[in-house]
Design goal:
HAD_sf; Rossmann fold; hydrolase; HAD-IA family hydrolase; S-2-haloacid_dehalogenase; Four Helix Bundle (Hemerythrin (Met), subunit A); 11 helices; six-stranded parallel β-sheet; about 45% helix; HAD-like_sf
Length: about 240
């Protein structure tokens, strides 16, 4: 299949790197920090309990579902307050979380493929998460980064995709959204009028996911980001050359 690709919008978590190891690291690092700086909080909210509190906070504050940073702060605030801790610890605790959150372990193909793609078309990161491209060291590959917390709505809402297209100065039909999530990425982008590419990496069983939607399908489906870079190279007339700064 060939179609114009003037720009790309790209998901981050579970597309460039797996999130599960990040989540496990966050829990471990934050627990260690609390044991040192607020032992009463660590004792009252061990990892399993802190995880449950986070889920409760997320469930009871749906108005912040697009803003994971606020939800994380609310979780930490509740744990510190209920354990009688010094509330001045809130921001240092959040910074401890955020530093761990931005330590990523890329999929083996991600960086080389990202460099190839960024050399061909401008890329905007579009994420519901709170990854920071500057902290991670990836800003040189991206023309823009759009967080749901700043935009005010999260994928799969059409508005966040359309905002990315506007920043890229490209019509939605000329923009390819790339991501791992069927609903948030593929269907959200398609409903907003973008082209879609499903990065369907094999799971723990070594097999990719089965497609679950009856009517809509991704325009492209690959098991690696390298395969997308190969596709762009194979269709040079459908992609705009773009030099990485």
């Amino acid at each position: 299949m060939s179609f114009p690709v003037r720009a790309i919008t790209l998901d981050l978590d579970d597309t460039l790197w797996p999130f599960a190891p990040i989540g496990a690291r966050i829990e471990r690092v934050l627990d260690d920090w609390l044991r040192e700086h607020s032992p009463a909080t660590a004792a009252m909210f061990p990892v399993e309990r802190m995880r449950a509190v986070r889920e409760e906070v997320f469930a009871t504050h749906p108005q912040h579902k697009h803003d994971l940073s606020t939800l994380r702060r609310l979780t930490l605030e509740r744990a510190l307050r209920e354990s009688g801790a010094d509330m001045a610890l809130l921001e240092p605790a959040y910074e401890t979380f955020y530093a761990a959150r931005n330590q990523v372990e890329y999929y083996p193909d991600s960086l080389a493929a990202l460099e190839r793609i960024a050399a061909r078309v401008p890329i905007a990161a579009v994420t519901n998460g709170n990854a920071d491209l500057q902290r991670i060291g990836l800003t040189r590959y991206f023309a823009h980064q759009i967080h749901s917390r700043d935009h005010g709505a999260a994928k799969p809402e059409a508005s966040i995709f359309l905002a990315a297209c506007e920043r890229l100065s490209a019509a939605p039909a000329d923009v390819l959204h790339v991501g791992d999530h069927i609903e948030m990425d593929v269907l959200g982008a398609a409903r907003a009028g973008l082209r879609s590419c499903w990065i369907n990496r094999p799971g723990d069983d070594g097999r990719p996911q089965a497609w679950t939607h009856d009517t809509l399908r991704p325009d492209l489906e690959f098991t690696t980001l390298t395969a997308l870079a190969d596709w762009l190279d194979a269709h040079p007339h459908f992609a705009t050359e773009h030099a990485v700064a």
